[in-house]
Each structure stands twice: as structure tokens, then as C-alpha cells.
Specification:
Largest sheet: 8 strands, antiparallel
Number of helices: 2
Distance between the termini: 22 Å
Oligomer: single chain
Shape: globular
Strand content: 35-45%
Structural class: mainly beta
Length: 165
């Protein structure tokens, strides 16, 4: 559904929550899309008003993919991959509730600019033991070192889709 056909108000983090009614009492569940000058600008699945699952953002003027992320209750939670407009990967990151803890950044030529893999737990914010366990599970599920090696081998031909199934 086009986001313009829905009503929204911001959640506590300033992210939109989607509703079917103007009073914002009936949360929307389904797929949403937003357009900018006839180009798809963003799309994602929404559950009870919140982005849940795969979210994609696109460059406004070209419609090319800019970011694909896993969302949970309007927060990035899991793998996030950003792209330059030329199709080259800009960054790969593991994210826990909008907090980026492991990442690799690239330049437009596909060369590594900065690498922060397996960040030291001592530098993490004050997470509970349960939250730290969730972070370790994300690391087990998505091996950024292996994804990075695949990006270095494949360049612009990197197939990100398999990581978001």
C-alpha cells in the first residue's frame, strides 16, 4: 500500500507508525511503499503499525537501492547493507536495536575504508546479559568476515538477497 494512503504518527524514537484511520487507533499490517518523483523511495513490511522484517530504501532521483536492513519494531536489528548509487557496497553492519556494533565500510571503488569486526564487549553500552546474548546470536547468524570476503570477490555482482531470506 502506498504510504500516502495511510495515516501515521511517530513512535518514541521518531519513526513512523502506520494506521488505517485518522485518529491513529487502528494499526496497519501489510506492505508499504513510498514514492519520490515517481521513483520508489522506500518499502517495507509493517506489523501492527511498526516496520518488521526487510526494509529497503532507494536513492530519490535514480530509484537505485541505497539500503536494505532487517527491522524489528521500527528499529534496525540484524544485518544492514548500504550501497553507493553505482551499485558498489558502501557498508555492511550488524545492528542491535539501532546500535551498530560490527561493520566494514568501503569506498566507491570497493576498497576497505574502515573495518570494525568483533568489537570489544567492554566498549558496548550497558546491555543486559540477555541483550548481549542476542548480539552474539546475530554474530553467529551473520558472519561479517565471510560476507566481507564475498563482497571483495564479487564486487558489484555481490548478491545480498540470500542474507535477507
Amino acid at each position: 500500500m502506498n504510504e500516502n494512503n495511510l495515516f501515521y504518527k511517530d513512535d518514541l524514537n521518531g519513526n513512523p507508525m502506520f494506521y488505517l484511520d485518522q485518529e491513529c487507533t487502528k494499526p496497519y499490517t501489510g506492505h508499504t511503499e513510498d514514492y519520490f518523483k515517481e521513483h520508489l523511495s522506500r518499502e517495507g513490511d509493517v506489523v501492527n503499525g511498526y516496520y518488521e522484517g526487510i526494509y529497503k530504501g532507494y536513492y530519490d532521483y535514480s530509484g537505485k537501492l541505497e539500503i536494505v536492513s532487517q527491522m524489528e519494531h521500527n528499529l534496525t536489528n540484524g544485518l544492514s547493507i548500504e550501497f553507493f548509487e553505482n551499485g558498489q557496497v558502501r557498508s555492511i553492519s550488524l545492528v542491535f536495536h539501532n546500535w551498530y556494533f560490527d561493520s566494514v565500510d568501503y569506498n566507491e571503488n570497493g576498497e576497505v575504508e574502515e573495518e570494525n569486526l568483533n568489537s570489544d564487549e567492554k566498549r558496548w553500552p550497558h546491555f543486559t546479559a540477555e541483550q548481549k546474548d542476542e548480539i552474539y546470536k546475530l554474530r553467529e547468524k551473520y558472519n561479517l568476515k565471510e560476507i566481507h570476503e564475498e563482497i571483495m570477490r564479487e564486487g558489484k555482482n555481490f548478491k545480498y538477497e540470500k542474507y535477507f531470506e
